[in-house]
Amino acid sequence: MITVVHVITMLELGGAQENTLHTVANLDRSRFRVALVYGPGGLLDARLPELADRTTLVALPHLVREIDPRTDAACFSDLRATFWRLQAEHWQREHDKHAFIVHTHSSKAGILGRTAAKAAEVSKIVHTIHGFGFHEGQHPLKQALFVNAERAAGRITDAFIGVSRANLTEAAAKGIIRPGQRTELIRSGMDLGAVRRAERLRTATREALGFDPEDEVILAITNMKPQKDPVTMIRAMRMLAERRPRAVLLMAGDGELRPDVEREIARGQLEGRVRLLGWRHDIPELLAASDLVALSSIFEGLPRAAVLAVAARRPFVGTAVDGTPEIIKDGKNGYLVPPRNPAALAQAMAKALVTRPIDPADEVAIRAWDADLMVRQQEALYLSLVGARSSEI
Fold first, then answer.
1. Distance separating alpha carbons of residues 219 and 275, to the nearest angstrom
2. Contact 206, 217 (CB under 8 A)
3. Residues 198 and 143 in one domain
4. pLDDT higher than 60, residue 167
5. What is the side-by-side strand order in the sheet with 124-129?
6. Residue range 357-381: average pLDDT?
7. pLDDT tier at 388 (50, 70, 90 boundaries)?
8. Are residues 340 and 386 in the same domain?
9. Are residues 122 and 246 in the same domain?
10. Is 271 exposed, middle or buried (CB count within 10 Å of its CB: 0-12, 13-18, 19+)?
């Protein structure tokens, strides 16, 4: 039996959190004993009771996204103690001591989790890159801090998973992944079938939202945080509204920048053209009701919104950052523009509403993002890391 311990910060609505929970829920329990270590307080905590009977759940209040030396030191101690305890349980069951894996996600949990795992003498350490804590335009000292921390954690990592080729390439270029270290490209999986099934609800969903057939519905699936730059989306919508009188923007998501978004809506007199939906659990239905999916991110791993758009056969307009061009082919299934450029974003949305680009080749390409395939690929990696001992498990 292999024990796999997943480590992630707060379980808010987001790609890293969604696919971590799906992995934890669906790993083959005949071969894997599974634990989830997380920071409590997220919206997705509501799903944890479904896992409790077959997953060891460990909530660590100090495991937070914000950087604070005292809190982070406490978190390191909590993580190390948790790994020691879970290893002791693993050994008490007389499982192979080498068949114990800590799998961390994203930057903060990745750095603290891997460092604590090493201190606890964990045999194998895996990290998934869902994007980075550093990005273009960040203060140089803060960026250097993040890059150096990632490099240090990278030296004790046995295998890296990237949700995009771009992230793996960037990590190698910055010395986070060193030559010879193991890397795997495993896409951020999602329930593609739910998106397809919701299509039959298009008319009913549009009517329930109060749209006429002539309305042009743009859907932005986005956290309202600096990475997603939602204010640029509102500014682009103001420009688009002057050209497309039936265009309406739905923003599914919430976050710290919501007051800024609300002010920008008021400034642009867009109260009737932009709807802030908050956090939603009916994304497949909203996709079915939409005509276009848009995103204004400054940086990404690879946005799930783009994958969902392709799965729903909706054009996607977004920024040409990181892994986005790996799913969106400019002019074929959407349009990509530079970040922080509302005029370019507005022009691309206007064009997409007219041309409605859809690529028939996506029917095959999208299969790489199937949620169950993601789980099977991770299982194969775990078994491979354990090596010859996997035959004894």
1. 10
2. yes
3. no
4. yes
5. 56-59, 32-38, 2-8, 100-105, 124-129, 159-162, 182-185
6. 95
7. very low
8. no
9. no
10. exposed
